[in-house]
UniProtKB/TrEMBL annotation:
This is DUF3426 domain-containing protein. It comes from Acinetobacter radioresistens. It holds the Pfam family DUF3426. Keywords: Membrane, Transmembrane, Transmembrane helix. The chain crosses the membrane at residues 137-160. It comes from the Bacteria. InterPro entries: DUF3426 (IPR021834), Znf/thioredoxin_put (IPR011723).
Amino acid sequence: MMSDKQTRCPKCTTIYKVTLTQLTIAQGMVCCPKCSINFNALTHLVQPAVSSETRGSAIKKSTLPTHIGERKKIGSEPSANILDIFERKIENSNIDLLTYLNNLNYFHNESTLSLPALHLSGGNALKEAPHPRSTRFYYLLWGSINVLLAMVLILQVLWFNPKIINDSPFFNLLFKQVCTVLTCEKLEDYYSQVKIDKVKVNRAGKGQTVFSGVIVNEYENSLQIPSIKLSLNKHNAEILNTVILPEQYLTNDLYKVRRIPTHSPFKFKFTVPVDCKDFDDYHLEIIRP
């Protein structure tokens, strides 16, 4: 019969006859009664011999186990002729149309409703570049760079906005500390060019002395107002050593000024609680902020 197929056991090479019903219901999986292994009959189909006598001697008449009975034959002769198309084979193939249609899930691993996979390139065409292995030194280096850039940005904001420094004690202290670390020697050089001139010492009353004069900035740029250190001596013995802050020596018309312009006299005046008779020598020194 055209509906019968021949398959070969891959272990014992025994050839069996199977029907389309067996292949369809069991999805091609059969069991060899001789060696008791399960195999796919569709992948081990063999061509029947030309001679009927040779085929009869080579094929054993054993029946493979299945879960359903034989398919009923088509009743009418015209209908059978029409359905013969399902049992025809194409060239160089052992599988007919009916077997193929009933085993689509076997021949195609992907679902028939799924989208086709797009293979845009070969396996090695788009290899990702290996990422450099991060180390502790890598994170430390970039962390230091980020901190340095942040400090430079903050210093620029404070440098061009002195009002922020004057209004905020925290930023004022931060600016002084950073400038001390970065430009300590330069600041000393800058303020060494600030001079005290035209000093006058007058008695203001009992037990009080008034110091007045001008501060001259000979540096090419303006500088933040410095403090003044006062030392009073008598017979080469120091009797007073104090620092006068800008807000203590600035006159009323200069009270809000925070920087000394270049080559412009800057008046100062302050009082100390020491009588003129109590000292015979004094020394005034500029102290940078």
